[in-house]
Amino acid sequence: MSMVFCRGCAKEIHSTATACPQCGAPQAFQPTRALSAGIPETGNPYLEVLKKYTVFTGRASRREYWMFILINLGIAILLGIIDALLGAKGFISNAYSLAMFVPSIAAAIRRMHDTNRSGWWILLPIVNIVFLAQDSQPGDNRFGPNPKGIN
Length: 151
Prior knowledge:
Elements: E1 3-5, E2 12-14, H1 45-51, H2 62-86, H3 91-114, H4 125-133
Antiparallel strand pairs: 1-2
Helix pairs in contact: 1-2, 2-3
């Protein structure tokens, strides 16, 4: 059962509803749009973030951000094991971490934008985790269209 937000009152309603049962607002949902102009979506959150390597504008969905973090963590652990087996003294995993630094910051800033907050919030250690875990702001905000395609 897929839920979306009403265009009129922002209450959660079923995705197939043609009108909101609470406020009566018509619901004309658009298909999901690309997050950044000219960058097609692949469906793979890890590749989506890498395609937008230095894009600090726009919005990133909660799924895109956290799946990137999860896949990134898995790759880092795997490379750490390979480093230990080869006796590379952490060279491979450190090179990967350095390469992923900028895309991780860019994805975190876009995720903050998705909750309608400035990217500077990622500098606050505890607060940023709470904001990164929050759901998207329904509809368009000052940072662009909703990555879920919900208006």
